[in-house]
Amino acid sequence: MPLHSSPVHHPLFARFYMRTGPILDRRAGMAAHRRELLAGLSGRVIEIGAGQGLNFPHYPDAVSEVVAVEPERLLRRQAAQAAVRCGVPVDVVPAVAEALPVKSEAFDAAVVSLVLCSVRDVPRALAELRRVLRPGGELRFFEHGAAEGGVLPLVQRALDRTVWPPLFGGCHTARDPLAAIGAAGFTLGAWRRLSVPEGPVRLPTSPCVTGVAVRTP
């Protein structure tokens, strides 16, 4: 079976994330970041790596449909339950980011939220997103990635070579989402760096970047 169509199953991490994700939303301000990420969206939206559907309550009413892609079956089951309670139509589908089962140029916007860290092939996943977006369509992103300065970058690279990916569902802490998005043919718009959670204690996943990019013709 080709790598990009093989099943994704991380049951221990999925259960861990189902518990910690809502805590981060309440205590680390992630709910507010999700609202900011999705504000102003309209039309058809595809979300990659939807997890258990924590973004769903924050989609504005102007969104006519969300196709939410989630390959991990435990998280997908939770997402399907969250979709029923959502104020906009959400269709949760099993697929991987590198092989999206949708038509080209079919969406007005795409959303990636804490997912580029764990996809198996970042360039191919972003190429797929570019394929399914209409020209001028927006890519909204909220991703953690490589730290700048100090010892944390060294720690991130060491973790990525050893224990972090197998423990946390394939997650890599030292990827550069901004560089990857730019290299995939998107034009970066407004973006900013932030730390989640805020404060003096920085986790390997604390350095984040959020913003918007546009699919050029």
TrEMBL record:
Pfam families: Methyltransf_11 (PF08241). GO terms for biological process: methylation. GO terms for molecular function: methyltransferase activity. Residues 47-140 form the Methyltransferase type domain. Keywords: Methyltransferase, Transferase. Gene3D superfamilies: Vaccinia Virus protein VP39. This is Class I SAM-dependent methyltransferase.
